[in-house]
Amino acid sequence: MDTLTLLLIAFGLAMDAFAVSISNGTTVKHQRTNHALRIGIFFGSFQAMMPLIGWSAGLTLRDLISGVDHWIAFGLLSLIGCKMIYESTKMDGQKKETFPLSLWMLLMLSIATSIDALAVGISFALLNISIVTPILVIGTVTFVLSFLGVLIGNRIGHFFEKKIEVIGGLILIGIGVKILIEHLCNAP
To answer: How far separated are the first and last CA of the chain, in Å rounded?
Structure first.
């Protein structure tokens, strides 16, 4: 596989994580760099692990996951998006600042944004492509874009506060709907 194709795959896979990172960046008030590193590490790691898992599982897992991967991603992203919208309606004294850094939320977001990478890993196995370079490139690109996404979201988020949080939630729901529609339209 040539370098340009691999980079395009990596950027394509990282776009969901980038959008989610921007959304999360809007909610961060303190420790921007720590939060950006944490999100980048989670998203980059999961985005690198999923192709490895897919590649390892090959054809067997493809049949099991392909029927529900879009529903899992849709459900997780919609749930998190609705929670963000709900959080934006709370009074300032009622808001919890732990939401963006919650381990549970990071795990759910990491899984939801990396499910497509599992399918890519399966396709790498079918094409007999060595997996080491792709997972390094995919993980690194996702880390960098996720890190930058948090910083970008943080910079613009404080200007619009609650509106951006609602928009961020709607973006997550939109990504979930997009994934669902793409998979349902391509279903046999």
So the answer is: 28
